[in-house]
Amino acid sequence: MASQLCLVLGGVRSGKSAFAESRVTLLAGPTLYVATGLAIDDEMQERIRRHQASRPPEWSTLEEPLQLADKLGPVLSGPESPHAVIVDSIDVWVANFLIEHHDEPKSRIEETVVAQTDKLLDLVAGSPQGFLMVSSEVGLGLVSPEPLGRMFQDLLGTVNQKIAAVATDVFLVVAGLPNRIKPARAE
Hints:
Blueprint: E1 5-10, H1 16-23, E2 31-35, H2 42-54, E3 60-63, H3 68-77, E4 84-88, H4 90-100, H5 106-125, E5 130-136, H6 147-166, E6 169-174, E7 177-182
Parallel strand pairs: 1-5, 1-6, 2-3, 2-4, 4-5
Antiparallel strand pairs: 6-7
């Protein structure tokens, strides 16, 4: 069975995570929440704590900031594999690569991120689980005045487009309101 992949895009604090979490009920069954955030400071620790507290206690969690496909693969094929997987979030995952590899040439970072994205999408394509991926939409904001910020916007835009191209559903969440953009509704 081909995997179902839903990409949920939105701005910061748009309600995209809450929407993705509500959609997982359509996939019924054990859920794995894949968290990409790193508790690098007090504010981020509090953010992570709030996210953890908001999740149902029966969900399992995989915390992985970089190697999503490598760490997720064994969990998906294991004896207690989940029925649904939420990856929250792709934008933090891309930012983690930039932080980890900031001293490498831009072309090398791009190659790494694209290769890791392809590896993740190959894993999803070969999996029977349903997936929801959450990411920030970078195409609606200002262009960053800093080179690292522009690289982040470019990379995340590329990654979001790759995921959206193969996703069965794509939603854009604005002010807590989900808007389906793929597949487009028939008029």
